[in-house]
Amino acid sequence: MLPEAGSLWLLKLLRDIQLAQFYWPILEELNVTRPEHFDFVKPEDLDGIGMGRPAQRRLSEALKRLRSGPKSKNWVYKILGGFAPEHKEPTLPSDSPRHLPEPEGGLKCLIPEGAVCRGELLGSGCFGVVHRGLWTLPSGKSVPVAVKSLRVGPEGPMGTELGDFLREVSVMMNLEHPHVLRLHGLVLGQPLQMVMELAPLGSLHARLTAPAPTPPLLVALLCLFLRQLAGAMAYLGARGLVHRDLATRNLLLASPRTIKVADFGLVRPLGGARGRYVMGGPRPIPYAWCAPESLRHGAFSSASDVWMFGVTLWEMFSGGEEPWAGVPPYLILQRLEDRARLPRPPLCSRALYSLALRCWAPHPADRPSFSHLEGLLQEAGPSEGCCVRDVTEPGALRMETGDPITVIEGSPDSTIWKGQNGRTFKVGSFPASAVTLADAGGLPATRPVHRGTPARGDQHPGSIDGPFSWGPSSPAPAAWQSAATHPPASTGRSALPPE
Ligand code: ATP
């Protein structure tokens, strides 16, 4: 059974003092549905539901606090206070937050149950299922949305699920950023539903792993996504939030060239002087994405989000492969503390991999901040160019005049570069003279295209880039040219970067 909206204050109150197990007995056996009902509850009544005297004292203190500041401390207000009612007509119970003062901005709203109709299932997570939906606005206009409904188990959505669901609501309702998934509002129905912006193209992970004939994502687009992600994370960090679950599965595609950070169920405010959040109890955590201090001490911070950003970068350039696949979770921490790092994926330039390694610095303080990363990504990103002559040399990346070329790797001293043909999606080596860089004023490419320093630990047996010694007189091995859809399966995922 779902807690009624009108009694959610009780659940929050009890959760705050670690007495959530008494929610149902208090509600059903003592018939308490409003704070003032406690005036009629005697200690014997609480004894009768098994609540000890120390716990009763905690409850009494909490009730005093609740009453001394009903608006600022009432949990329903706290959670829903940022919502402006969408409709004027009374669609909610009389004790609903409809009567609460409208906040400044009032961008988010309570949505009547009948205004949202759910369609096809998009996916499911730990505590909710997500459906495609249509939200009919008071004006009659219909907006496509995603509706996340709180999963209701046989014993109702008690404890963690409800807490995480509502925490996700309370975090999302205050966020407004072009690369953060937008929450439209909340349906206080059964089940509770979050009405969110629809990302019609699904998760980035699903897109990365989509089988042929879906074309792979171009390297240039992946770099754009990384910049969007760093911007969104800098925004979250500036608001004192730590995401804790950054991964391509939690990045949604709102359009072919726009990602949105989603899944705020694990987001927590950074507390304390050290700006980190320490986990209170055992919870499932995404081991392979986590920083060593998160795995060892349960400590999360913007710096541990930066570590996860590095793993997300790795996923993107590995075609959505699972990081540390085959390594048991308990060994991952040991590997990380032994300085093992995920190897450089073939599509990832040395400069970008070097950035990932900085995100994976053992000490959180040595990792770049997200706002710093935004600039670093700009510098490390590939150059864009255009093919100025057909390239047909054996072993070279095939290109035709006019093909857009992303230069992944180049060097001032080398006549051979590595890049991706935007028309064919193929990656390989080619003569530098065949490409004009977009920012070189129409001249053939003769200058360095890489501003980053070479990455440590980027040796990757079987990777598609060669030692850059190939020239027209010494053809490149055919293996250098490969489709980005099929990155070679990575076996030794724990490459040790040389010191
Ligand atoms: P968890 O919540 O357990 O961490 P999750 O991210 O998979 O995991 P949800 O946030 O419940 O769980 O999302 C489930 C799936 O629904 C996602 O994988 C995604 O594919 C899809 N989905 C979620 N939100 C949207 C949205 N706004 N638009 C389109 N699809 C969505």
UniProtKB/TrEMBL annotation:
Name listed for the protein in its UniProt record: Non-receptor tyrosine-protein kinase TNK1
Residue ranges of domain Protein kinase in the record: 116-377
Biased composition (Low complexity): 466-484
UniProt keyword Protein biosynthesis, yes or no: no
Keywords recorded for this protein, A-Z: ATP-binding, Cytoplasm, Kinase, Membrane, Nucleotide-binding, Phosphoprotein, SH3 domain, Transferase, Tyrosine-protein kinase
GO annotations of cellular component type: cytoplasm; membrane
A Gene Ontology molecular function term of the record: non-membrane spanning protein tyrosine kinase activity
InterPro entries assigned: ACK/TNK-like_SAM, Kinase-like_dom_sf, Non-receptor_tyrosine_kinases, Prot_kinase_dom, Protein_kinase_ATP_BS, Ser-Thr/Tyr_kinase_cat_dom, SH3-like_dom_sf, SH3_domain
SMART domains documented for this protein: TyrKc
Compartments in which it is found: Cytoplasm; Membrane
Self-association state and partner proteins as the record states: Interacts with the SH3 domain of PLCG1 via its Pro-rich domain.
Entry EC number(s): 2.7.10.2
Residues binding ATP: 148
Catalytic activity: L-threonyl-[protein] + ATP = O-phospho-L-threonyl-[protein] + ADP + H(+)
Organism: Gorilla gorilla gorilla
Kinase as UniProt keyword: yes
Gene3D superfamilies xrefs: Phosphorylase Kinase, domain 1 (3.30.200.20), SH3 Domains (2.30.30.40), Transferase(Phosphotransferase) domain 1 (1.10.510.10)
Start and end residues of each SH3 domain: 380-440
PANTHER family (UniProt xref): TYROSINE-PROTEIN KINASE
Annotated segments matching region Disordered: 441-499
